[in-house]
Specification:
Layout (H helix, E strand, L loop, with lengths): L2 E5 L9 H32 L7 H21 L3 H34 L6 H32 L8 E5 L12 H18 L1
Antiparallel strand pairs: 1-2
Helix pairs in contact: 1-2, 1-4, 2-3, 2-4, 3-4
C-alpha cells in the first residue's frame, strides 16, 4: 500500500490578515484625506494668486490609497505579489510622508514669519495635510514591517512528501511479480493524486 501525505504550506502573511486590513483601512483614509485637502489647497492658493506647487497632496494621496489597497488585498488573500508590492509602496509612502511632514512644518514656520497674507484657511489646510501624512507615516511603517515579516523574516516551509510502501515479500512464493505490479500501480495512483 502506498500513500502520499502532502502538507501545503500557507502563506506567512495569513497570520496577520487582520493587521493588514486595519493598516489598509487607515492608509486609504489618510490617502483620501490628503487628496481632498490637496484639492482644497490648490483651490485656495490658486485664488490668492500665489505661485506654489501645491499639487503634491493630491499625488501623494493617490499613492497612499494604492498602498492601502495592497494592504487590504494582502489581508483578504495574501500572495507574494501583493506582499512585495506593498513592501515597495509602503517604503515609498513612508519616505514621502516623512518628507511632507518635515517640509510642511518648515513651510508653516516660514509662512508664520511673514505677514498673514495667505490667510488662516491655508494654514489649517497645511496642518491637516501634515497630520494626515504623519498618520500615513506610522501606518506605512507598520505595513512595511508586516510585509517584511511575511516575506523576508520567515523561512518558506517546503512541501512534505511521505511515501510508504507495503512490502510484498512472501516467504512461501518465489514469484513476486503480482506484488511488484500492485506496488507500481499504487505508486502511479499516488503520483496522480499528488499532482
Amino acid at each position: 500500500m502506498s500513500f502520499v501525505a502532502t502538507k501545503i504550506p500557507k502563506h506567512p502573511a495569513t497570520n496577520h490578515k487582520c493587521s493588514f486590513i486595519i493598516i489598509g483601512i487607515f492608509e486609504v483614509l489618510a490617502g483620501l484625506i490628503c487628496s481632498i485637502v490637496g484639492i482644497l489647497l490648490v483651490a485656495q492658493i490658486g485664488s490668492s494668486g500665489t505661485s506654489t506647487n501645491a499639487k503634491s497632496g493630491i499625488g501623494t494621496g493617490v499613492l497612499y490609497v494604492i498602498s492601502g489597497i495592497l494592504a487590504l488585498s494582502a489581508g483578504q488573500s495574501p500572495t507574494q505579489c501583493n506582499i512585495i508590492g506593498g513592501m515597495i509602496l509602503a517604503s515609498i509612502s513612508a519616505f514621502i510622508s516623512s518628507a511632507i511632514v518635515v517640509l510642511g512644518i518648515w513651510i508653516l514656520q516660514i509662512w508664520g514669519t511673514y505677514e498673514n497674507r495667505l490667510g488662516s484657511r491655508i494654514h489649517g489646510i497645511m496642518a491637516t495635510i501634515i497630520v494626515a501624512c504623519a498618520i500615513e507615516f506610522v501606518f506605512a511603517l507598520a505595513h512595511l514591517v508586516y510585509c517584511c515579516r511575511a516575506r523576508c523574516c520567515t523561512r518558506s516551509s517546503s512541501q512534505v512528501r511521505q511515501i510508504s510502501q507495503k512490502r510484498c515479500h512472501s516467504p512461501i512464493y518465489d514469484d513476486h511479480l503480482d506484488c511488484k505490479v500492485l506496488s507500481e500501480n499504487l505508486m502511479q495512483e499516488a503520483q496522480l493524486n499528488y499532482k
